[in-house]
Design a protein that fits this description.
The complex is a heterodimer of chains A (about 425) and B (about 230). With about 425 residues, chain A is α+β, with helices and mostly antiparallel strands. Chain A is built from 14 helices and twelve strands. In chain A, the strands form two sheets. A six-stranded mixed barrel of chain A has the order 2-3-8-5-7-6. Chain A has a two-stranded antiparallel sheet with strand order 11-12. In chain A, helix 2 packs across helix 11 and helix 9 packs parallel to helix 13.
Chain lengths: ~425, ~230
């Protein structure tokens, strides 16, 4: 066996140029694979992080029916006793923060310009432990309760031409049900501008203290949602917390419903899953190209070494040993090519994890993608894990071994007399 | 006792639907320790006999006994075992493995036999390479050796596993006459020293002159069987 291993290893360097080309095909294919997987995973990770930290936190509690109509922002489906709900939820294991909020439709009016946006009334003292808005302030200061001021997303501020200290009229829509449409307008000063990393949030949201919503929308202490932060994003923890919250709320108010961030990010997760399927297809195509290269190299080797195969057969080598010899050669090509591919892909992915890959060259297309599909800015960061490299290495080697099987069987089936006569 | 016994061996080739009968009922015996040449013009059936005796090919008719045992009906795996343990081959074009050194080429059949430990293998390979006069060329690759040296490596490779029978197909055809003669003399010395049986095909008069027995073939039939001395 050791003789065959030694022989197989030396054989792959017999034709150096061809071996170099085969290694290049395998390693470049696998490197691209590692880069694409880590980038896609990185985009997913960034997106999920942005969804949780900018939009949903881990769990949201709504009045029954609100979830289904949430895009319409129904102001009639509110939670009346949010403080009692918060108190109950705080006692549940793994819960690190609870905040009540009001989401409302709004528009900003500056002179003759009017831009629609989404208003979020929040608890200034609690929100920084729930979302990343405070950390992402790029200008101005954070809100305090009682302020007649607001925060605005960087893109939205740029679009309407607002800066910190400017005053703007906010049209707060308090009802859109049926044919009625009621609103109230308040003048607020821009206290800060945030750049959360989620382009949708930065392009569409304004944040106000809860008191503004109470007055402007006539909420009288009612809220549209209670948001819950957990100490972990693990599915099991989130699901257990959802079940526990549902349980404690059942005894308190049976007209409330509890949803996880996954329920709220259903569209993104669906697209992500579709992308995973497409990614699997790309992987298959790349591996197919790499394996065709190996098959070609091995078939050439069988053709060129036909007499040698005949000689080995005359020496008493059995078909199984000849098969093994060529399978080992395919395996070595796969191992070395996969190693180089993982090295090249791993280093590139590491670079992209640290420095990112700017997608700004895509211009408006990137903006559309980030607003409709991936809630990330125009720099993609890779997410490199040892598991990806290990799986790529093992898979690349296995595919190479499988690719080597056909030429190996072809070599083993050669008639020794014909092989020895081969010119 | 005969090491090789052929009885009425027939062989027909079919190439693109055209049948060609290469052997017409050939019978012959080879005794242990013989130095025998099968001679004849091209197409007379020399290589076919060598292939059948070497268990590389099967006869269509007749019987073949190697060391008293019937070879007919053996599976390809069993024939591979016979080649591995009982037979040695020397080819016209040497057929050394180019990526292995002379030492490794000679060691190769021993590693297939799995009988000796590495230290024993090393000792045996070195000894046999000394016997063929290549003690200073052990680490050379085939591409770094002359044709005569390569054929000496091939002879050492055939002898190293102590086969009962060594088959050589035109062993001097790719060598100049001086080198060919040296190689033949080496084979004769080894035949005398080890008692191994040599059966080779040739149409080279110099080779025939060295053989102690010559079987002449013509059109797939034995024309004469002559013991020289």
């Amino acid at each position: 066996m050791w003789t065959l291993v030694k022989l197989a290893f030396r054989n792959i360097f017999r034709f150096k140029r061809r071996t170099f080309i085969t290694f290049s095909a395998v390693s470049v294919g696998l490197a691209l694979l590692v880069i694409s997987i880590t980038l896609m995973n990185g985009v997913d990770k960034q997106s999920i992080s942005n969804i949780i930290n900018c939009r949903t936190s881990h769990i949201k509690i709504f009045k029954q029916g609100y979830f289904d109509k949430r895009d319409e922002l129904p102001m009639s489906l509110t939670i009346a006793d949010a403080d009692a709900v918060k108190k109950l939820v705080k006692s549940i294991p793994n819960v690190t923060g609870v905040e009540s909020r009001v989401l409302f439709g709004a528009s900003l009016i500056k002179g003759t310009d009017e831009l629609p946006c989404l208003g979020v009334a929040l608890e200034p003292a609690v929100d920084p432990s729930m979302f990343n808005t405070k950390q992402s302030l790029v200008e101005g200061e954070w809100l305090t309760e009682g302020d007649e001021k607001m925060l605005i997303g960087r893109n939205l501020a740029r679009d309407i031409g607002l800066k910190v200290g400017d005053q703007v009229t906010v049209r707060m829509i308090s009802s859109t049900e049926g044919e009625s449409f009621s609103w109230n307008a308040v003048d607020l000063v821009i206290k800060g501008i945030f750049d959360s990393g989620d382009p949708t949030v930065d392009s569409s949201r304004v944040m106000v203290p809860m008191g503004i919503a109470d007055d402007g929308l006539g909420m009288e202490g009612q809220v549209t949602e209670v948001v819950v932060r957990l100490n972990s994003e693990e599915d099991e923890v989130v699901q257990a917390a959802q079940a526990a919250i549902t349980k404690v709320l059942t005894g308190h108010d049976e007209t409330l419903e509890v949803h996880t961030w996954k329920d709220l990010a259903g569209m993104f997760l669906m697209i992500s899953e579709m992308k995973t399927n497409r990614q699997a297809m790309i992987i298959m195509i790349m591996l197919l190209i790499a394996s065709l290269g190996i098959i070609n190299t091995m078939l050439m080797a069988v053709l060129e070494r036909t007499r040698e195969i005949g000689m080995m057969s005359a020496m008493g080598m059995k078909s199984s040993e000849i098969t093994l010899l060529f399978v080992l050669e395919g395996g070595f090509i796969g191992m070395i090519g996969s190693f180089l591919g993982c090295l090249l892909g791993g280093l590139t992915a590491w670079y992209l994890e640290v420095y990112g890959w700017s997608m700004s060259f895509m211009g408006e297309t990137m903006q559309k993608i980030s607003q409709s599909i991936y809630p990330v800015k125009d720099v993609f960061y890779a997410d490199l894990t040892p598991g990806i490299l290990i799986i790529t290495f093992v898979f690349g080697t296995l595919v190479a071994i499988l690719a080597g099987l056909y030429p190996a069987r072809k070599a083993a089936k050669l008639n020794p007399v014909d092989a020895l006569r081969h010119i | 006792m005969s090491i090789v016994k052929l009885e009425n061996i027939e062989k027909t080739y079919n190439t693109n639907g055209i049948e060609f009968k290469a052997l017409w009922g050939v019978s012959m015996e080879v005794a242990q320790g013989e130095f025998l040449s099968i001679a004849g013009p091209s197409g007379s059936g020399k290589t076919t006999i060598l292939n059948i005796v070497g268990c590389l090919d099967k006869a269509d008719g007749g019987s073949y006994y190697l060391d008293g045992k019937d070879v007919g009906g053996k599976s390809s795996g069993q024939l591979a075992d016979i080649r591995r343990y009982q037979l040695g081959f020397i080819f016209q074009t040497f057929n050394l493995i180019p990526i292995l050194s002379a030492f490794e080429n000679v060691e190769f059949p021993l590693t297939l036999k799995h009988e000796l430990k590495p230290a024993q293998r090393k000792e045996k390979v070195e000894r046999i390479l000394c016997d063929v006069g290549l003690q200073d060329f052990m680490q050379r690759k085939p591409s770094q050796m002359s044709g005569g040296q390569q054929q000496r490596v091939a002879i050492a490779r055939a002898l190293v596993k102590d086969p009962q029978l060594i088959l050589a197909d035109e062993p001097t055809a790719n060598l100049d006459s001086k080198t060919g003669k040296e190689v033949l003399e080496l084979m004769m010395q080894l035949n005398e020293k080890t008692g191994a049986t040599f059966l080779f095909s040739t149409h080279d008069q110099m080779v025939m002159d060295c053989a102690r027995r010559i079987i002449y073939l013509k059109d797939g039939r034995i024309e004469s069987d002559e013991t020289r001395r």
